[in-house]
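hey
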């Protein structure tokens, strides 16, 4: 029988009218949520203004606690979604009770493809469905009792918000990265350098002699936000381009699972690569999980080596290599199929003596290149680089010259070389690289041994079965005109060859990164419009701040033009481009040229844009004059001891955002910092990744998911409507038909029970299985807590003013000490276990509970189950809220055990157990153990070699 029933304990229903039930919980929770809203209980005072007149409040340490932006799905929340929100709420409540000024709020990342897809299908404006989803989510979150400062909430679709998203874009657009100063600077500073001659104009000539279009092209090569023609991930099925991170490992779109192809389009990009070194170096000062730091380091991919030029037909192929010491082993070259030099150096006919295996059976090099490019375009980057696949490629009909020995080597295109890494070209050294080795074998190319094998295989490569990769072998067969590497180790050989390359002017030592510039255009309607217009010459101009926000216009059709998913030859057509009245405008941009005709940018920003800076808007959400008040930003996010780059004190969210949102937000923060808009160079100082709540799902014989709630278990097998089904374990979600909503659990047990259950399931950073049947355990804890304060028959408070016994005092202060440590360390499951232990102790002791113990217990529970804590606090006679009450402090005299058991072992076997003080010293414990009668008898006079003491619990005697 459920304990939501008052008769569950055997007590007649009429005898327990004041029992804590689901109905009582619902009434209490709704009432206290209304109270918190009316009183502004969770409003966080700002440094500017609010704190000025309150010295005591101003003296409090601050704590800025954040959750990752939620996307307001129309499906609403399931119980897996609030895990992180409850955790940050518990932590924030604890921080308030320990004297901190806490900022904790939540907004909504509301631009997104799901709302747009719904608009495409129904014709309903995406704002309507998005705002409805936000309202539903707000209602669900409010039901959980989350202590958010609601004055600071917003959605990225609010024009007052995305005005500043557009403003930040313009700051980036109007900036360049000064490599000497190692920071971003206004583009006007660069123009001044060109005008004065301090900096040479690329290509020579004077700045004044350049046309407006030419100047725009030059500046585009420096701007941190720039438009360019570049290979992109084109998804015909969605009608838009995608960032690398939005393409799955099998070359399909993350949204919709459509094929993705490489295409060359003009798109907006962010020059995040300029910050690669700083993004790497500053990770060292962040309190982030090492796994996330490693992912970012790998994604940025810093490597040291050299750039080397290989002459070919009047052009130069530049390669980046981490092993310039192996240049003498380069026997061919490979370009990415998309490399711009391919068209320039592909001849009309095959050179005399071209091997048949090199041509792919095509009549001319141009035919071979065209066919191979089409083949490569249908594969994802991951597929192209798969180690196990057969190596494919085609000779383009040209030979390059190896600069170290003058040898002519053939140039191929092959899909295992990517335009997005290095220079899009490699020198192939098949003796030391397995992919090059396999390619050389497939195309009958030379394999020269230039490192001395240490595994006994010898230097005759015709007998080799694989490449020999070595970083500690000696260099051999590497002598050319003016340079010899023979006999050197790798490090010495690299230094010597780089010195020679630089002296000869054919290469230089350099650093390369795997990180690519961030593709920032989307061919969608539901996103931030770019504050950019183009003049009649096609030059891009920034809108002045007075014209922001640039709002989305109404359109008749919300969908980008989509195509057959496999039609790679298509190109984007955006919804905004169809609204000619909005696109074509006459504007006075305030640049002295007066009103002129312009054409607006018809792409929109990606959904990541709004989440790149939202932590700043939480600080100063109603400021219409500037991004954020500098004093407010310094107070909440500025650098301080232990946080040299500043940032949010605690940021909780999923690990899946390691190289998307987190990397992008760090980039934007650094640009804003360089330009003097903020004092924090990093957005998030401490990052915590919560685990995932998982659940069982069930599929029928067709592989179709069936409602998990309607599946019955019989003798270890599972049945749905009498038919056997297969059980699987994984994510919770609507599509798997295994979602449990928080509304269901709150309705059956109350929000406090749901909060306790989610926090008690296991360590916060570990995924855990949902079990609705187990929720009742936390409900019973609250019922026992209630009974220890309130008489279920009369509703009267039962506590007494008498002092508690020593056993209870020890139980109380041990709990206070343990819960404090656990809440500080975000070990919420063990904190709940300690609260349960104390509550059970009081139940076991019986009789009325001492007021001092009851009040301390309620305060211990307050961060975890705030509604019942508020109610019991009020019943105990207090008129204030528990939210800002001081958290209990343990008395050290009672927080430690009176005695602990020390085990004494001889040769690993237990010979005695001693009851000792927890504070006993190692010397005292050794003396006590050696004098024990049982130990003396067990030793029987044997000489002692060693005594190992681990006070206060272990003494190990070695004879």
């Amino acid at each position: 029988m459920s304990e939501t029933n008052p008769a569950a304990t055997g007590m007649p229903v009429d005898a327990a009218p004041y029992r804590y039930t689901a109905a009582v919980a619902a009434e209490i929770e709704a009432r206290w949520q209304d109270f918190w809203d009316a009183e502004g209980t969770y409003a966080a005072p700002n440094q500017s203004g609010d704190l000025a007149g309150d010295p005591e409040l101003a003296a409090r340490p601050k704590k800025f606690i954040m959750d990752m932006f939620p996307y307001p799905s129309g499906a609403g929340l399931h119980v897996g979604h609030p895990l992180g929100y409850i955790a940050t709420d518990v932590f924030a409540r604890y921080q308030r009770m320990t004297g901190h000024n806490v900022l904790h709020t939540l907004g909504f990342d509301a631009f997104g493809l799901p709302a747009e897809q719904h608009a495409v299908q129904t014709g309903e404006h995406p704002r309507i469905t998005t705002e409805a989803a936000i309202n539903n989510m707000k209602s669900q979150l409010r039901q959980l009792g989350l202590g958010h400062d609601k004055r600071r909430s917003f959605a990225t679709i609010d024009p007052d918000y995305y005005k500043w998203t557009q403003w930040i874009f313009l700051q980036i657009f109007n900036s360049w990265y000064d490599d000497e100063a190692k920071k971003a600077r206004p583009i006007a500073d660069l123009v001044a350098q060109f005008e004065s001659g301090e900096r040479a104009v690329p290509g020579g000539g004077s700045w004044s002699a350049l046309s407006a279009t030419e100047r725009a092209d030059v500046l585009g090569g420096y701007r941190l936000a720039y438009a360019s023609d570049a290979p992109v991930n084109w998804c015909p099925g969605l009608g838009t381009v995608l960032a690398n991170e939005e393409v799955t490992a099998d070359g399909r779109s993350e949204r919709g699972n459509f094929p993705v192809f490489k295409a060359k389009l003009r798109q907006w990009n962010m020059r995040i690569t300029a910050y690669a070194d700083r993004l790497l170096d500053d990770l060292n000062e962040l309190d982030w999980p090492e796994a996330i730091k490693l992912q970012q380091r790998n994604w940025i991919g810093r490597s040291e080596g050299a750039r080397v030029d290989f002459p070919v037909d009047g052009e130069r192929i530049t390669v980046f290599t981490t092993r310039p010491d192996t240049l003498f082993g380069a026997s061919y070259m490979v370009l990415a199929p998309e490399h711009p030099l391919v068209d320039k150096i592909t001849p009309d006919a095959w050179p005399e003596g071209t091997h048949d295996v090199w041509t792919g059976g095509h009549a001319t090099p141009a035919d071979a290149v065209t066919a191979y490019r089409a083949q490569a375009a249908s594969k994802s980057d991951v597929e192209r680089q798969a180690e196990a696949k057969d190596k494919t490629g085609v000779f383009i009909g040209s030979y390059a010259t190896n600069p170290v020995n003058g040898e002519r080597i053939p140039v191929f295109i092959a899909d295992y070389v990517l335009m997005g890494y290095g220079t899009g070209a490699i020198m192939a050294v098949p003796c030391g690289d397995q992919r090059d080795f396999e390619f050389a074998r497939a195309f009958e190319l030379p394999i020269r041994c230039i490192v001395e094998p240490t595994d006994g295989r010898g230097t005759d490569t015709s007998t080799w079965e694989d490449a020999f990769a070595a970083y500690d072998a000696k260099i051999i067969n590497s002598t050319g005109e003016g340079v010899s590497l023979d006999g050197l180790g790798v490090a010495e050989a690299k230094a010597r060859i780089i010195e020679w390359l630089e002296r000869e002017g054919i290469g230089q030592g350099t650093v390369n990164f795997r990180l690519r510039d961030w593709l920032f255009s989307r061919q969608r309607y539901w996103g931030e419009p770019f504050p950019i217009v183009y003049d009649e010459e096609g030059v891009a101009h920034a809108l002045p701040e007075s014209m922001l926000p640039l709002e989305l216009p109404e359109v008749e059709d919300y969908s980008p033009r989509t195509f057959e998913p496999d039609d790679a030859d298509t190109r984007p057509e955006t919804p905004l481009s169809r609204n000619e009245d909005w696109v074509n405008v006459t504007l006075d941009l305030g640049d002295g040229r007066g009103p002129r005709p312009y054409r607006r940018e018809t792409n929109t920003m990606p959904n990541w844009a709004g989440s790149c800076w939202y932590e700043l808007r939480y600080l100063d959400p109603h400021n219409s004059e500037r991004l954020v008040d500098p004093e407010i930003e310094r107070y909440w996010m500025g650098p301080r001891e232990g946080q040299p780059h500043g940032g949010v004190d605690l940021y909780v969210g999923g690990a899946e955002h390691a190289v998307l949102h987190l990397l992008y937000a760090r980039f934007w923060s650094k640009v804003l910092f360089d330009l003097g808009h903020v004092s924090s160079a990093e957005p998030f100082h401490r990052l915590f990744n919560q685990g995932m709540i998982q659940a069982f799902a069930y599929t029928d014989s067709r592989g179709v998911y069936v409602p998990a709630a309607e599946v019955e278990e019989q003798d270890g097998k599972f049945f749905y409507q009498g038919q056997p089904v297969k059980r699987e374990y994984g994510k919770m979600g609507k599509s798997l038909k295994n979602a449990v909503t928080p509304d269901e659990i709150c309705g059956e047990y109350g929000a406090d029970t749901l909060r306790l259950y989610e926090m008690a399931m296991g360590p916060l950073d570990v995924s855990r299985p949902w079990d609705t049947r187990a929720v009742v355990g936390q409900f019973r804890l609250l019922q026992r807590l209630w009974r220890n304060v309130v008489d279920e028959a009369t509703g009267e408070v039962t506590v007494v003013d008498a002092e508690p016994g020593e056993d209870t005092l020890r139980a109380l202060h041990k709990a206070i000490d343990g819960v404090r440590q656990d809440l500080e360390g975000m070990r919420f499951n063990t904190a709940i276990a300690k609260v349960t232990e104390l509550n059970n102790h009081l139940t076991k002791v019986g009789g009325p509970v001492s007021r001092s113990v009851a009040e301390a217990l309620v305060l211990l529970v307050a961060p975890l189950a705030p509604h019942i804590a508020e109610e019991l606090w009020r019943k105990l006679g207090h008129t204030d809220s528990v939210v800002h009450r001081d958290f209990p402090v343990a008395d050290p005299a009672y927080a430690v055990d009176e005695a602990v058991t020390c085990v004494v072992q001889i040769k690993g076997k237990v010979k005695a157990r001693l009851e000792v003080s927890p504070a006993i010293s190692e010397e005292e414990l050794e003396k006590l153990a050696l004098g024990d009668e049982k130990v003396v008898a067990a030793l029987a006079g044997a000489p002692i070699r060693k005594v190992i003491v681990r006070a206060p619990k272990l003494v190990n005697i070695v004879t």
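The CA atoms of residues 43 and 151 lie 7 Å apart. The first helix runs from residue 22 to 39.
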